[in-house]
Amino acid sequence: MSHQARLVCVITLIAGFLGLLPASAQERPVPQGYKERGPVSLTPGGHRLDKEDVARLEHRLAENPDNIQLRRQLLTHYAKQRSSSARAARLKHITWIIANQPAARIAGTPICRVDDSSDPEGYELARSLWLEQVSAHSANAAVIGNAAYFMIQNDQQIAVDLLNMCRAVDPKYSQCAKLLGTISSLQAARTRLEEEAPNPKDEALADLERTYELTTGKTEKQLLLSELCKAAFAAGDYEKAESYANQALEAVDDLLQDNVHGDALHYGHSILGRIAMMNGQVTRAKQHLIEAGKTPGSPALESFGPNMSLAKELLEAGESEVVLDYFQLCGEFWKYGEQRLATWTEAVNEGGIPDFGSSL
């Protein structure tokens, strides 16, 4: 099938899907010509809000619905709560952003994702809204890219088709290559487990490197370094992995000004620690593990948790004490992982090596 024909199929699929939506969803007004007003900070902080703070921010937001900064604060707060009411409040803000500001940067970040396993109905609602927006903004690369990001984990084929559509709309839109690289990495993990196909991690690294070359902003390039060092290590290019990890740590001082240095600090030290283990430098690896645990966190780290690969390698080397210290440090920012950290701590105290599962 030609590229053009495939795009026609995607549009047809979306149009068909929209025909199944209730009339209220189809008639929802879609904003035209939205332009984002400056960068959006996704730094932690909402978890410090008390009930009065939340009520005050919700009231201010009702008076000024377009205030993305207020929505970010509330989303960050609700994401750290476990009650059904908090989940419903979070979904309300996510769907408002999708329906009203689908091109906003925040819409294509972890803070606006909905977990299909814990909230399948919420995921389907948000997914339907994204398909509406793609149909309404079929010439807007930012909207299409944000929709693709939302579907990366649960609807990968649609995400790939959307990204190809996005690339056709704007070949220079740098997010396309980055997200395609992310999908390649996810597919690589799946094929490795199923042993059905060779691992395409070289392609994932190449996509991220193309994204880095296309990116012009200094901060945006620096934020990509933590992804690059992980992709290079996964591809077995340890020289590049070390170089990107060192560059990520060198960028920490700059990123600290906007408080977006959490990923660079964590993954830079994690990758350097794993390289140190490969070279038999256990003491240096232990130092890197502790430094990786001192990250203040990030939206992704706080949701999906820190990487445990270096911790597992040190446990296999008999270094349990430093791993227990690492668990404690991770507990400072990974509130969702409290139970898993407790289970892992118990296993290590009993002399075992935990099953880290998806945290590797």
Explain what this protein looks like in three dimensions:
The two termini are 37 Å apart. This protein has helices spanning 3-19, 23-26, 51-63, 68-79, 84-100, 120-136, 141-151, 156-169, 175-194, 201-214, 218-234, 238-250, 252-256, 262-278, 282-293, 299-304, 309-316, 320-331, 338-349. The model is unreliable at 15-47 (pLDDT under 50). It is an all-alpha fold. Helix 9 (175-194) runs antiparallel to helix 10. The chain has 2 domains: 1-25 and 45-173, no CATH class; 225-360, Alpha Horseshoe (Serine Threonine Protein Phosphatase 5, Tetratricopeptide repeat). It contains 19 helices and no strands. The protein is 67% helix and 0% strand. The chain is globular and about 55 Å long.
Integer average pLDDT: 82
The percent range for strand residues is under 5%
Instruction: Give, in order, the helices and strands.
Output: HHHHHHHHHHHHHHHHHHH
Query: How much helix is in the residues?
Result: 55-70%
What's the short story on this structure?
The protein is mostly helical and 360 residues long. It has helices spanning 3-19, 23-26, 51-63, 68-79, 84-100, 120-136, 141-151, 156-169, 175-194, 201-214, 218-234, 238-250, 252-256, 262-278, 282-293, 299-304, 309-316, 320-331, 338-349.
Which short descriptors sum up this protein?
360 residues, Serine Threonine Protein Phosphatase 5, Tetratricopeptide repeat, 2 domains, 67% helix, single chain, mainly alpha
Which SSEs are present, and which pair or pack?
Blueprint: H1 3-19, H2 23-26, H3 51-63, H4 68-79, H5 84-100, H6 120-136, H7 141-151, H8 156-169, H9 175-194, H10 201-214, H11 218-234, H12 238-250, H13 252-256, H14 262-278, H15 282-293, H16 299-304, H17 309-316, H18 320-331, H19 338-349
